[in-house]
Amino acid sequence: MTNESAHPTESRKNREGKAPSQSAEHLTTSQGSPLSDTDHSLKVGERGPILLQDHHLREKIMHFDHERIPERVVHARGAGAHGTFTSYGNAGDFCAADFLKPGKQTEVFVRFSTVAGSRGSMDTARDTRGFATKFYTDEGVFDLVGNNIPVFFIQDGMKFPDVVHAVKPEPDREIPQAQSAHNTFWDFVSLHTPAQAHTLWNMSDRGIPRSYRMMEGFGVHTFRLIGPEGKPSLVKFHWKPKLGVHSLTWEEAQLAGGADPDFHRRDLADAIEAGAFPEWELGVQLFEDDGTATFQGIDLLDPTKFVPEGLAPVQLIGKMVLDRNPSNYFAETEQVAFHPGHLVPGIDITDDPLLQARLFSYLDTQLTRLGGPNFSQIPVNQPKNPVNDMFRDGFHQHNIHEGVAPYQPNSLDGGCPFMADLAEGQSFPALEYPQETSGAKKRSEPVSFSDHYSQARLFYRSLSAQEREHIKQAYSFELGKCTDAAIRERQVQCLAEIDGDLAASVATALGLEAPAAQLDVEDLPTSSALSQIGSSWPVD
Ligand code: HEM
Question: How many Å lie between the centroid of ligand 1 and the Cα of residue 336?
């Protein structure tokens, strides 16, 4: 029943210590029979016809025909790297996770991505960037599946298909991605106004990072940490790049993307190859888990909201260094399967309705994308600690499980070795926090989710004049691609809710009348400076 999993390619090396294929002295079929010729099909006479009995030909072509797997429905374009996370050891009071013990080192695999574009799209498109980290801890895999923007478009997973359908290419022409800012995107975000804050971050320089190495990462949702005595606290995760946060200008993004569509992918691989290993510190904003899931009026379960760092400072708890490029893009970067529900004891989810829908979505999509239920056996997805899951069979089952049938309780098989190893009275920490819950079953929107603009305003006014200018230009350019006058007008009205000057500038650029401003940047108190947002990021 136990899968003592040797990790990644280790288990599949040939006698020379090389990964299989292309490395042996002679070619073989997939069954290992020697091949004398892989250049000519088996024919009758010199000039054919070809014989159906040519198994090598059919096997070679069959395998080639099936080389492509479905690309991810979102985040299809990505780049990955291996590395190590080292704990600073200062999280022990509030999180019992083993990988946060002092000095503990944990192997990681990170995949950065764009959201909207297809697998072959340009790296420098204006978009959100995914920042997904797999920690191979001694207590199992922990995935922190975040983005480079701390807020999200929607508040309930039910809306995810809507936002993605709006942002993906229009069905008739399949002209790609958010950057082309088609009508459907602006139609959706101007009607579904919780999306306004995320859209503003996208229109800012954050939407065109200089490099994956120079991006922040955010867990976005609020998670729950459980301390050694079982005390819970709420937390927002942050990655802080040691190189600082830098962006491209729009013109740079266009030129770089035109000259080199692999600009970010190449930058990451080249830097690692040159020994300039990118580094991030992992930080947490901690909040008391007092049952309200609210901090200073901010609903912590609303993923369209962030908590300014001036209100809740980020405490740094460890450092990640990426120091090894994947040796095979498909095997590792393409087949890696992240999941926000891959948690370890000491870290749990909350009732954020977006997070809860994600828990279903990733498993479901990976079942199709990775061809069945055994994708956790793919080397890059394998935990590095022993696995004993009692699963059996299914497509692409690589384990040869021993013993009698996997079921519990079980008097024939000797029971579960890990349980048996435990001393009397000893138990494993529970994965789930025993949260009290009650209430009427209904489809509703919390009143505390109804403010769609104040944080967009806070972000906008934290920016320098130059950065605001970039935002005005971005809206003017992108909305200028929207051919529906009513949608353009409605979106400019939304901007007036964020800032009057922003709305007026964009309206002028689009040849519209400036809408009545709700608030101007200058009307707002000045105490909430850049440091309060926690987003100090010079523009290169
Ligand atoms: C993929 C982040 C919301 C569905 C991803 C990836 C990231 C990510 C980083 C790429 C993973 C990789 O590199 O393999 C986020 C964040 C969200 C969010 C930060 C909100 C805060 C959602 C929601 C859903 C969803 C609400 C659906 C209800 C998916 C799917 C994939 C994906 C289906 C493709 C997964 C795969 O094929 O492996 N997301 N996402 N995401 N996300 Fe999300």
Answer: 13
Query: Which residue owns the Cα nearest ligand 1 atom 37?
Result: 72
DSSP-derived secondary structure letter, 332:
I
d(CA 497, CA 518): 5
Q: What is the pLDDT of residue 8?
A: 42
Average confidence (pLDDT) over 389-398: 94
Q: What is the pTM of this model?
A: 0.92
CB neighbour list of residue 481: distance below 8 Å, 6 or more residues apart: 180, 181, 182
User: What does the block give as tokens for 401?
Assistant: 């499980």
Which residue minimizes the CA distance to atom 32 of ligand 1? 74
SS3 string, 10-60, reads HHHCCCCCCCCCCCCCCCECCCCCECCCCCCCCECCCCCCECCCCHHHHHH
Ligand 1 atom nearest to 152, measured from its CA: 21
Helix 160-167 with 353-369: angle, nearest 10 deg: 60
Question: How is residue 3 annotated by DSSP?
Answer: B
**Do 86 and 99 touch, CB atoms closer than 8 A?**
no
Predicted confidence (pLDDT) per residue in 407-422, tens digit:
888 888 865 655 556 6
Mutation choice for ligand 1 from 74, 215, 356, CB with most ligand atoms inside 8 A: 74
Neighbours of 56 (CB within 10 A): 18
Ligand 1 atom closest to 220 (CA): 21
pLDDT band, residue 173 (cuts 50/70/90): confident
pLDDT given for residue 102 in this prediction: 98
Catalytically annotated residues:
75, 147
User: How many whole angstroms separate alpha carbon 473 and alpha carbon 203?
Assistant: 9
**Per-residue pLDDT at 23 exceeds 80:** no
User: What pLDDT score does 25 carry?
Assistant: 79
